[in-house]
Design a protein that fits this description.
By secondary structure, this protein is α/β, with parallel strands linked by helices. The chain has helices at about 5-15, 20-25, 40-50, 60-70, 80-90, 95-105, 115-125, and strands at about 1-5, 30-35, 75, 110, 130. It contains seven helices and five strands.
């Protein structure tokens, strides 16, 4: 089964958050797809953690990046016009719209821990995997 995997799910796994167990359960034997912006969003999330002092070891961040790079993810090139329609219609950040547009375009489930994305995704007719 193919699924669109968002940054919240990836961050949970690579930083050992409690939700990682649920992400792993939902993603057993799945083929992962993410928008081509995934590396940017992961870097942004990690930089926020560094800024807040949640990660304060330079080597830890390198280990986390290595964990991310080991995940086999097929990158999806979104239709920017469709992404911006979602942004406009739901008044959300573009990063979130990239995942929603990918799942909708590919007609595959979206694995996210983001409650707002889960709600919008369901409204959008996307099968949502999450908690």
């Amino acid at each position: 089964m193919e699924i669109v995997l968002d940054a919240s799910a990836i961050i949970a796994v690579i930083t050992d958050e409690p939700e990682a167990v649920l992400v792993l359960e939902h993603s057993q034997n799945a083929l992962f797809i993410s928008p081509s912006v995934i590396s940017f969003e992961i870097a942004n999330s990690l930089s926020r953690m560094v800024k807040k002092g949640l990660i304060n070891d330079r080597y830890k961040i390198l280990d986390i990046i290595n964990s991310f790079e080991q995940i086999p993810i097929r990158l999806f090139n979104n239709n920017l016009e469709n992404v911006m329609r979602i942004v406009w219609d739901y008044k959300i950040y573009a990063y979130d719209a990239f995942y929603l547009e990918a799942a909708k375009s590919l007609n595959v489930p979206l694995l996210t821990l983001d409650k707002d994305m889960q709600k919008i995704g369901k409204d959008f007719g996307i099968k949502i995997l999450g908690v």
